[in-house]
Amino acid sequence: MQEKLEFLIALATEKHFGRAAQVCGVSQPNLSAAIKQLESTMGVPLVDRGARFIGFTPEGERVLEWARRIVGDYKAMRADVETMKQGLTGTLRLVVVPTALPMVQRLTATVWSMHPGIKITIASHSSTEILSKLENLEAEAGITYLDNEPLGNVDEVPLYHERYHLITSADSPFGTRDSVTWEEAATLPLCLLNTTMQNRRIIDRAFAEAGVHAEPMLESNSIVVLTNHLCTGMWSTIMPRIMADSLLLPPSIRAIPIVAPELSTLIGLVVCRRDPQPPLTAALIADARRLAPDLANAA
Fold first, then answer.
1. Does 50 share its domain with 73?
2. Which of 10, 53, 57, 152 could form a disulfide with 20 if both were Cys (CB 3.0 to 4.6 A apart)?
3. Domain annotation covers residue 278
């Protein structure tokens, strides 16, 4: 039964029978047959089928919710027993919004100093992708925005606030200022993250609250791309101060607080709500709570 539930979760993640089968290491006919057996056991169709995967039936959505819970609890149980045998080991998979990447090393360094037997992987994703990966058991924890868009069934550990600055050349129209307004920032040639990123949606909302619309000259999902363009002095951008400080920008580039309105958003650790938590996740939560006051002061 557990294997069939894992197939269902893989199908929810990949939204394609062939890719789901590949992820699970089985043939597509075997995966399809297993899901049909699951449907027979439940007595209802779980998947809308056409020439390709269409989606889940209402009953399928409910079974998928239970599948995630059951498989997650089973893996947590196995990890708990393994920890009793040989201590805390395994791989901790973290998924992080791009603007939080500069601080994640402080969290992972803390975790590894306390638990040197574990391995850590870090991947950068949008906030929407982070929630999907947690839900589908593809990551143990995420670092994302806590107070802007719905998070769902997760436990949260607040870490610090992002505070937004205009990053611009000292030679730009506002380069010598101690602060700028959102209205003023909108007049500059901007390079910004694209709208798949929650950071951009937060910035767009701040412009709207200021009564202006900013049309960026360049958009990307990559901080590296923004940084390279910023260093030319031709573009400006808006990002959290903690991010700007980590980029080691040339002295000619300034970080200027943006006011009217002065905006901050809460960044934190999120994990799927489960009691008890798997050992690795529980250790991460405890370390994040210890580190949070220092991160809050640094930001």
1. yes
2. 10
3. yes
If asked whether residues 275 and 145 sit together in one domain, one would say yes
Instruction: Tell me the three state secondary structure of residue 47.
Output: strand
Distance CA 188, CA 174 (A): 9
Co-location of 190 and 254 in the same domain: yes
Domains contained in the chain, number? 3
Helix (H, G, I), strand (E, B) or coil at 158: strand
Do 66 and 42 have their domain in common?
yes
Tell me the residue type at 5: L
**Residue positions counted in the chain:** 299
Cα 28 to Cα 3, 20, 25, 152, distances in angstroms: 14, 8, 9, 32
pLDDT of residue 51: 66
Q: What is the mean pLDDT of residues 165-181?
A: 95
Nearest Cα neighbor of 87 from 119, 121, 120, 118 is 118
Q: Which two tokens stand for residue 220?
A: 């990307």
Q: Angle at CA 109, nearest 5°, toward 148 and 86?
A: 110
SS3 content of the chain, % helix, strand, coil (to 5): 45, 25, 30
Phi-psi region of 187 (alpha: psi -120 to 50; beta: other; left: phi over 0): alpha
* pLDDT, tens digit (0-9, with 9 covering 90-100), for 63-95: 998 998 888 888 888 888 887 778 788 899 999
C-alpha distances out from residue 87 to 4, 80, 90, 119, 155, Å: 30, 9, 10, 13, 24
DSSP 71: H
Question: How many beta carbons lie within 10 A of that of residue 162, not counting itself?
Answer: 23
